[in-house]
Write a structure and sequence with these properties.
single chain; alpha+beta; D-amino Acid Aminotransferase, Chain A, domain 1; D-amino Acid Aminotransferase, Chain A, domain 2; 2 domains; nine-stranded mixed β-sheet; eight-stranded antiparallel β-sheet; 28% strand; globular; binds 4'-deoxy-4'-aminopyridoxal-5'-phosphate; transferase
C-alpha cells in the first residue's frame, strides 16, 4: 500500500503518519468495527467516486447492526471522502477509500457501551485487487474448508471487521494451496461468496448469482445485475451448489476491489474455456466504461470531485 498525504480522523485531516490509535483500543481486542471499501476512478473529468452514497449508507447500517453509534451523518461522511480525495492530490488511475468506524480507548471488557467511537476515512492508490493478470486471464478459486458462519451465529450483512477473520482464514488457505482466492459455502453447502467478493457463473448464456442470504449485500453485484439486464442477459438469483460451479460455462467474481475478475479454475477443474469467457469480458468492459465515466446511462452513480 502506498501512503497518501492525509487521513480524515474524527472530523479533521491529519498527516498519514499521525493517524494513530492506543493499543488498548476496544476494537483491537474484541473485533467490533465496521468498514467500507469504496473506489474512485480517474475519469476524463477528474476523479469520480463510484456509488459513494450507497457505500457510506452501508457503513452507517453496518454500524447500527453492531451497536456502534457513528456521530456523523451519511452526508458529512460523503463530504469528508470527497475532500479527502481532493486534498491528497492523487495521480493514479484509481483510488481505494476505506471508511472505518471503531471503538477506541477507554473501556475494557466485552460490554462496549460507553467506548468512544472513532471515525476514520483513508484513501490510497491501489492496483487490481486480484492482479492485472487475473483481470485479463482469470484466477484460480478454491472452495474453502471452512464455511461462512451461519446467520444464527453472526451478522454477515454487516461489513464488520469481525467477519473478516473467517475470510482471512479462507483466503490464507487458498493461497497456501496455490490458488488466488477462496469461495465460501454457507452452512447448507451452497455458495455464499468469496472472501472479499461476490460470485457469478454463466450457464447457457444466463447469469446465475446467489441471493444475499448468507453474504454481504454487495453493491457491485447489484451493478452487474443491472448491466446484464440492460444488455438483455437473463439473470437468475438462486442457490448454487458446488457441483454446478464446477460445470459452469463461465465464472467471475465481483466487488469494489475485485471489480470483475474472471475465474478460470475452481478446485482443479477448468471452468469453460479455462480463461476469461465471452460474457464475462462484455460485462467487465462495460463495468470499466461505467466507473471511468464513459457510459452516460450510468453517470448518476458517479460523484465527481471537481
Ligand atoms: N463480500 C465480501 C465479504 C466483501 O468483502 C465484499 C467487498 N466489499 C463483497 C462481497 C463485495 O461487495 P461490494 O460489491 O459492495 O464491494
Amino acid at each position: 500500500m502506498d501512503a497518501a498525504k492525509y487521513i480524515w480522523m474524527n472530523g479533521e485531516f491529519v498527516a498519514w503518519n499521525d493517524a494513530k490509535v492506543h493499543v488498548l483500543s476496544h476494537t483491537i481486542h474484541y473485533g467490533n468495527g465496521v468498514i467500507e471499501g469504496t473506489k474512485a476512478y480517474k475519469t476524463e473529468k477528474g476523479y469520480a467516486i463510484f456509488r459513494l452514497n450507497e457505500h457510506t449508507k452501508r457503513l452507517k447500517e453496518s454500524a447500527k447492526m453492531t451497536l456502534i453509534d457513528i456521530p456523523y451523518s451519511v452526508e458529512e461522511m460523503n463530504k469528508a471522502q470527497i475532500e479527502l480525495i481532493r486534498k491528497n492530490e492523487f495521480t493514479g488511475l484509481n483510488v481505494y477509500l476505506r471508511p472505518f468506524a471503531f471503538l477506541g480507548y477507554g473501556v475494557m471488557g466485552v460490554y462496549h457501551k460507553g467506548a468512544p467511537v472513532e471515525t476514520v476515512m483513508s484513501a490510497w492508490e491501489w492496483g487490481a485487487y486480484l492482479g492485472e493478470e487475473g483481470l485479463q486471464k482469470g484466477i484460480k478459486l478454491k472452495i474453502a474448508s471452512m464455511t461462512r458462519p451461519a446467520n444464527t451465529s453472526n451478522m454477515g450483512k454487516a461489513k464488520a471487521t469481525a467477519n473478516y477473520l473467517n475470510s482471512q482464514m479462507a483466503k490464507y488457505e487458498a493461497i497456501d494451496c496455490g490458488y488466488d482466492e477462496a469461495l465460501l459455502l454457507d452452512d447448507q453447502g451452497y455458495v455464499a461468496e468469496a472472501s472479499g467478493a461476490s460470485f457469478f457463473m454463466v450457464v447457457d448464456g444466463k447469469l446465475v448469482t446467489p441471493p444475499s442470504d448468507n453474504a454481504l449485500v454487495s453493491i457491485t453485484q447489484k451493478t452487474v445485475i443491472e448491466i446484464a439486464q440492460d444488455m438483455g442477459i437473463e439473470v437468475e438469483r438462486r442457490r448454487i451448489s458446488r457441483e454446478e460451479v464446477y460445470i459452469a460455462d463461465e465464472a467471475f467474481l465481483t466487488g469494489t476491489a475485485a471489480e470483475i475478475t474472471p475465474v478460470r479454475i475452481v478446485d482443479a477443474r477448468e471452468i469453460g474455456c479455462g480463461s476469461r469467457g465471452v460474457i464475462t469480458e462484455k460485462i467487465q468492459s462495460t463495468y470499466f466504461d461505467i466507473v471511468f465515466g464513459r457510459n452516460a446511462k450510468y453517470e448518476h452513480y458517479l460523484t465527481y470531485i471537481d
